[in-house]
Amino acid sequence: MDMTMQFPLSRHTLRQGFLSLALCTPVLALAAQPAAGQPAAVLASGAGVSVTVDDLQADAQRIPPEVRAGLLARPQNVSQIADNLLVRRVMAQKAQAQGLGNNAVAQAALNVARDKILSDAWLAKIDADNTPSAAAAEGQARNIYKAHPERFAVEEQVHVRHILIAGTDDAARAQAEKLVAELRGGADFAALAKERSADKGSAARGGDLGFFGKDKMVPEFEQAAFALKKNEISGAVQSKFGFHVLQLLDRKPAGQQSFSEVREALVKEVIEQAQAEGRVAAANAIRKEFKVDEAAVQAYSQSQAAQPKAQ
Fold this sequence. Notes:
The chain is of the alpha+beta class. The protein folds into three domains: about 40-100; about 105-155 and about 255-285, no CATH class; about 155-255, Chitinase A, domain 3 (Roll), CATH 3.10.50.40. Helix content is about 50%, strand content about 15%. It has a four-stranded antiparallel beta sheet, with helices on both faces. A two-stranded antiparallel ribbon has the order 1-2. It has a two-stranded antiparallel ribbon with strand order 3-8. Strand 6 (about 235-240) and strand 7 (about 240-250) form a beta hairpin. The protein is elongated, with a radius of gyration of 30 Å. About 15% of the residues are buried. Belongs to the PpiC/parvulin rotamase family.
């Protein structure tokens, strides 16, 4: 059964052609600078090189923000990252000493890496410059909420718990009907669900499936669920999973999400839209200053097409 019961707020898709993907990826976060005259603390050193807190903070930007602080709060992780950075730094020095960074491919790669780091920092500044104030963002969010009520419509939902008897034969039906009689006679639904339900996921919650709307469950189950009255016990309901015995716990009529329910998501949408527009404007301004050499592009593509395919 589809146990999905989330109803995420629908969002407008940003259709600008430049850097929309970049909004979904972390850009370089500029690490806090040490006080004047105070160099960053050294975490590891040797072979004539060292790794500082600033180095670690820069490398840590690749770690997802939601887990970064927790990971860096463990000394063993910080030690391992510092060790890896130190090894890389020594390797880089050896490569430089041997002239390995002087060939055209290495130089191009270094230029691309530098461009990525600095452009990410510039984009972070563009985002900051185009981020509306909290009051302005909330005001725009309220305007969206009022102008597009259809986006926040909520369908009727029911809150149901069930017990599943596996199998579709006569023996399974008899078990389900016996269960119906016990429950209608006052037996504890949650206790019986934990003891007898073949749906082990919901059984651990006393059979509780939470709230769900239409088209979330198999048709036979859905029809029975929406036909029940509050606290009513169903008969044995057959589906492809077996026989279900349901109880309706609550019902939410169709309506509309309140602004407080969608405020956070809408404010985020407003901010992301403003930042995207700022990035697009900046990119378009840059594009006015150059053009792509289509002949060179065609020549390169043709040279690649002529390369033998990798086996």
